[in-house]
Specification:
single chain, 2 domains, Aminopeptidase, 4 helices, three-stranded antiparallel β-sheet, alpha+beta, 158 residues
Length: 158
């Protein structure tokens, strides 16, 4: 009648003492540079945080610089739609959101994007040689591209 109970209690059980103990990951603590709250981190991390999540989020909200992402649509290229859209967006960011600076990156061979930036009143700030790689060469090595940076400040906006 209670055979199932006998089976349970007759099983050989492993002693808790013989089980391997999992080591807790080493965690260190340091204060947030802004508010002083403790920040817990693992010393093996590549980047050690200096700010708590709340302070980092608040800083990013107050100082974020929006990046304009665009993709060229072959059916609509050269008709001024990108200029109209970007102009309206810049106007909104500068006048409604209070953004201080907008910047854009484009490859050095992308002349239409460079013309768009210049038409919007952005100034060419620099050329980064072998700046970034999104694809690999046939031999597997990264293919770096030259990148042009444009920017405009709120006070420069028309």
């Amino acid at each position: 009648m209670f055979n199932w109970l006998k089976k349970i209690f007759s099983r050989k059980t492993e002693s808790v003492a013989s089980m391997p103990i999992k080591e807790e990951p080493k965690r260190l603590e340091k204060p947030c540079r802004t508010c002083g709250k403790p920040i817990f981190y693992d010393p093996s991390w590549e980047h050690i945080p200096n700010y708590c999540k709340e302070c980092k989020r608040k800083y990013q909200d107050e100082h974020s610089i929006p990046k304009i992402m665009k993709r060229k649509c072959l059916d609509y290229g050269g008709k001024g739609y990108a200029y109209e859209a970007a102009h309206a967006y810049f106007d909104y960011l500068f006048n409604q959101k209070g953004i201080r600076r907008i910047y854009a990156y484009t490859e050095d061979y992308n002349v239409p994007s460079q013309r768009l930036c210049e038409r919007l009143g952005m100034r060419r700030e620099g050329l980064f040689l072998d700046f970034v790689s999104f694809i690999n060469n046939p031999d597997g090595t990264p293919h770096y591209e030259n990148t042009v940076q444009y920017a405009i400040l709120k006070r420069e906006w028309k």
